[in-house]
């Protein structure tokens, strides 16, 4: 698998392995949303109202699974790793910025979904779907950066005590 290239040969501690293992199911959901969005925007879907509500349900489920993952990173991995590499600049700052941009775009999708009503016009669809596609693009790249750079870096620089600390934080 290409997105695992940077992690080859690395054995992750339980906490980082957990974060790493949470990516594939999230990635699968993103792929399904992209497929659905393409069907909607290409005109394949005949009933736009039903199709776009299905997409909104997919996003809602995705977000409910993404949020705990993000919280483990923002409240655990990022500050603990930040003790070693700082948080104002560099990888942690980039990761936090990307989290913010993804959340902002998911919220914008939800806001626009709330504005279109039960029977959206075909010309409305692109502006509704666009922020969701932006969020997914951000998160796909974000996951690759974590898997290839951040997680291997954390595995190398965190102490055994910090790795245990992370696991305890995640299990709360």
From TrEMBL:
Domain Hemerythrin-like: 16-154
One Pfam family, short name: Hemerythrin
InterPro entries, per the entry: Hemerythrin-like
One GO cellular component, as annotated: plasma membrane
Name the UniProt record assigns to this protein: Hemerythrin
């Amino acid at each position: 698998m290409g997105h695992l290239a940077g992690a080859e040969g690395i054995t992750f501690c339980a906490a980082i392995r957990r974060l790493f293992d949470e990516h594939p199911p999230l990635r699968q959901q993103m792929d399904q949303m992209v497929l659905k969005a393409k069907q909607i925007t290409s005109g394949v879907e005949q009933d736009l109202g039903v199709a776009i509500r299905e997409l909104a349900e997919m996003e809602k489920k995705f977000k409910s699974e993404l949020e705990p993952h993000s919280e483990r990173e923002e409240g655990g991995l990022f500050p603990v790793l930040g003790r070693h590499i700082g948080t104002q600049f560099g990888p942690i700052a980039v990761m936090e910025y990307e989290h913010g941009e993804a959340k902002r775009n998911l919220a914008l999708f939800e806001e626009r979904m709330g504005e279109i009503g039960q029977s959206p016009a075909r010309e409305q669809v692109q502006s509704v779907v666009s922020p969701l596609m932006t969020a997914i693009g951000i998160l796909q790249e974000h996951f690759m950066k974590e898997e290839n750079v951040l997680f291997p870096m954390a595995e190398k620089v965190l102490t055994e005590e910090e790795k245990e600390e992370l696991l305890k934080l995640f299990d709360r």
